[in-house]
Amino acid sequence: MGPVGEAATVIDRVVTERGELVLRHRAGHYEIISNGVFLMDTRAGASERLLVREALTLVRPGARILIGGLGVGFSLAEAAASPVPAEIVVVEIEEALVAWHRSRLAPYSAHALADPRVRVVTADLVAWLRATDEVFDAICLDTDNGPDWTVFPQNAALYDDDGTALLRDRLARGGVLAAWSASASPAYAARLAATVGPVTTRRVEVPRGEPDVVYLARRVPGDDRPGVCG
Ligand SMILES: C[S@@+](CC[C@H](N)C(=O)[O-])C[C@H]1O[C@@H](n2cnc3c(N)ncnc32)[C@H](O)[C@@H]1O
Predict the structure, then answer these.
(1) Distance 60 CA to ligand 1 centre (A)
(2) Is the distance from the beta carbon of residue 48 to the nearest atom of ligand 1 less than 6 Å?
(3) What's the whole-number average pLDDT of the chain?
(4) What is the pTM of this model?
(5) What CATH number should be reported for the domain holding residue 174?
(6) Which residue of 67, 74, 194, 226 could cross-link 45, Cys pair, CB 3.0 to 4.6 Å?
(7) 138 CA to middle of ligand 1, Å?
(8) Is 151 within the bounds of a domain?
């Protein structure tokens, strides 16, 4: 992930019930490794910002935004830079990662943890979505490398039929679900269209490999389908 030959310095290493989480520094950038899987680094961030920027174009001022997965904070920084959201809820599973945003990673989330509009919840997004009755005008989902490559097997529950319906149920009518993926997933796009509403796709070229993909699915304003719990 970093320039060949550059040694990485481990800044912090914690063991959670999901495995090992490492923050390391290499050639002027931070990298997060979750249980041996590269999760995110501070080098780019174009598609993680686009995820939020595109969603915000589809909501009104005063909107309530949910961001699933804090990472290095590019998505949160984009949300906090906008006057549109009145409330930004971030659900992040790793307590240590949230703590890093009070120190090393604070510049990358633009010190947004101190923004009075921002509420960080340390929880598993799947469990939190099942327990809450909060609804959002936009949900920005970036917990994984995409619907077809989750960091934990249990995160598949965010992308399957039930998980997609659960996310839809947490959207206000007319709200938008924005989902990030490291590669195109036609099956997931079809599921979003069938479960949430009309889908648009944005692609972001990356230096190596397939473009990153952002799916935007709009819950139709008159949607009164029963929820997964209803
Ligand atoms: C790819 S990173 C997010 C990148 C972020 N959009 C950014 O701008 O840096 C994924 C994040 O989701 C978190 N995560 C993974 N599974 C989760 C879950 N089930 N619930 C909440 N957070 C989760 C990871 O710990 C990580 O912080």
Answers:
(1) 26
(2) yes
(3) 94
(4) 0.94
(5) 3.40.50.150
(6) 74
(7) 17
(8) yes
